[in-house]
Amino acid sequence: MATVNLDSSVAPVSSTSDRGKNGVVLGTPLVVNPLEIHSNAPKNVSIPQEWSPRYRLVLGKALATSGAHLAIVDINIEESKSQAAHLEGLFKELNPNETNPIKITAHFADVSDTVSVNAAVEEIIAAHGRIDNLISGAAIIDNISAVYYPIERAKKIWAVNVDGSYLFSVAVAKHLMERNSQGSILLIGSMSGSVVNVPQVQTPYNVSKAAVRHMAAYLAVEWAPFGIRVNCLSLGYIITDLTQKIIDARPDLNERWTSLTPQGRLGTPENLTGAMTFLLSDASLYVTGADLRVDGGYTVV
């Protein structure tokens, strides 16, 4: 089951499929659901995030078409329901003769609130029976100079971006340990956790993504004895509806970001599905604590 969780503002400026496995997908502003690999498809996946709707649809499609059951979690429950219905319809369209269709459910959660997160996880388990994997990527971003940044706004960013991933990871890990079951947790990070972005200013966001990257490394070591893998997927500049509007209004930003990216272009949500599929599937059973950057080479120059 795969889960994706989204809050409000988001960031980009910031085999054969194994049926019977579940995936949980959370989120509206964030969108995460990929899993299409010729190995074992992901099992139950939980994903708390805050991406653009396009992210979730693209990644959710990859997970759904691989046969994963999904749980979509968002602070906007109507958005979750809409995307769940869309993905279920897509699966039926692609598999008209399937007698055992995938199950996709929608759930509410405020990723920054412990009670809300735990309630969502319990609700997902009740609906699907178990959670095997988690994708957590809730995130908010602002481009404001640090000297003018309202501290309460910075705390909100850290609560969603850092606490959100931590709370969902802990809740799912507890569930896996109680079942004595292995699982995979994928935290959605950003190249901003490793470099200083230019020309925009976004200190609280970069700090939060650096925390997420190290969180993945630390939890990977702590939970390895339980068979739980934890990895980080750090994204570069990805084109979404939001980023497209930004670069349409500020062509100079597009030129700057593109010139700093060795591949000479911005990425797309479709460019993320392979990496996510790999880290959630059995193809990466010996991979944990890794930070996989999908950034067109931005961070190596």
TrEMBL record:
It comes from Verruconis gallopava. Keywords: Oxidoreductase. Belongs to the short-chain dehydrogenases/reductases (SDR) family. The keyword Metal-binding does not apply. It holds the Pfam family adh_short_C2. InterPro entries: NAD(P)-bd_dom_sf, SDR_fam. This is D-arabinitol 2-dehydrogenase [ribulose-forming]. One of its GO terms (molecular function) is oxidoreductase activity, acting on the CH-OH group of donors, NAD or NADP as acceptor. It comes from the Eukaryota. Coiled coil: none annotated.
